[in-house]
Amino acid sequence: MTGDNAQPQVKLDRAERIDRSRARAWALQVHYRWESSGFEGTLRDALVDTTATRRIAPSRLPYIRALLTLLDEHIDEIDRTLRRYLDNWSLDRLSRIDRAVLRLGAVELLYRDDIPPKVAIQEAIHLAEAYGGDESPRFVNGVLDALYKGQAKGA
Known about the structure:
This protein is mostly helical. It has helices at residues 14-36, 43-53, 61-84, 96-111, 117-131, 136-152.
């Protein structure tokens, strides 16, 4: 992977894993809000707007910020990469939720060396199950698994 944020994989305790999972769900909501507003400002701006009206546990904010910052910095590259693995789909045709889940999963696969790829994919599937449509989990799994295998091969 390309890992700008190369960090060693660290075993998290249960509370930290729960915080990370919930931080991902918050990042998804912020992305949805950002895209629904017509992409006004950055994702970090959308987080500031969200925290002005919603209470997010302080322990989750650093990971939310990290994901959204990476997405802000690399969204064009992430979208180009995802497009390579979308069989018979365009990124624009996807639901906002599926697009956001794929982007967040791709952020972790491509730029977070501290997150095992299987964890990144499984967490994205959980988001798709919780927030997406009936076919979302299988779709997200297929795209992110193909991305991971393609990156592992150096595609």
